[in-house]
Design brief:
- This protein has 112 residues and is mainly α.
- The chain has four helices and no strands.
- Helix 1 runs antiparallel to helix 4 and helix 2 runs antiparallel to helix 3.
């Protein structure tokens, strides 16, 4: 059985990432070069939704936590990679939150 504290840390990382993705999403929509940010906007939404789903799955001790968190890792890494292409502060902060979330999820999945 996984340590409750590890789930807590992973849930918090997922929620922080979800928030950073939502901020990036809303902020991108206000930028002048909107077309250039299309992929960033799309991945922000996907990543935020998947992070929220992962946090919910962990909070209810879903039997699919490992698979859901593996998907979360993929979404976070894809979002971070896209956000790192842009110089906006919100993109940089989002990429950082995504990479941290991926790391915490990877560590937790390794313990399952």
């Amino acid at each position: 059985m996984i340590n409750e504290l590890k789930y807590k840390e992973c849930i918090e990382a997922c929620l922080q990432c979800m928030n950073a993705c939502n901020v990036c999403y809303v902020s991108c929509l206000k930028e002048y070069e909107l077309a250039m940010l299309r992929d960033c906007i799309a991945l922000d939404r996907e990543c935020a939704d998947i992070c929220a789903f992962a946090a919910q799955a962990m909070s209810r001790n879903s039997p699919f936590v490992k698979e859901i968190c593996e998907l979360c890792i993929k979404a976070c890494l894809a979002c971070a990679e896209e956000c790192e292409k842009h110089d906006h502060d919100h993109c940089r902060q989002c990429a950082e939150a995504c990479r941290r979330c991926a790391d915490v999820c990877r560590e937790m999945v390794g313990q399952l």
